[in-house]
Amino acid sequence: MIAVHVRVSGRVQGVFFRAFTQERARALGIKGWVRNIPSGGVEAVLEGERKQVGELLKAMKSGPTGAIVLGMEFSELESKGYEDFEIEY
Fold it and tell me: Is 18 one of the catalytic residues?
């Protein structure tokens, strides 16, 4: 089990990026959250098995139709034991 904080930059707001991330996370059994940030990007915390987190990061790098991902930064965190994957507002 690992936990990762990720920030995604580019055209990722207004293109259903958060819903896309939530749908993929839940399908992969990943817990945590995703939200828009004031700079125009998206940030998320992902908790799960290393392979599944890697798969979600790969999906986030492409994003949904209409998204243009210009960059991703991530760092490992301590797990907090989230029970679901939520969109934060």
Answer: yes
- 13/64 Cα distance (integer angstroms): 11
Residue 5 structure tokens: 């904080």
pTM for this prediction: 0.96
CA distances from 33 to 2, 46 (A): 14, 7
Residue with tokens 């995604």: 8
For 57, the 3-state DSSP assignment is helix
Please tell me which residue in 7, 11, 18, 35 is annotated as part of the active site.
Answer: 18
Q: Are the C-beta atoms of 72 and 7 separated by less than 8 Å?
A: yes
Q: Calculate the CA 85 to chain-centre distance.
A: 10
pLDDT digits over 16-50, tens only?
999 999 999 999 999 999 999 999 999 999 999 99
Which of the residues 7, 11, 35, 36 is marked catalytic?
36
CATH class of 22-72: alpha beta
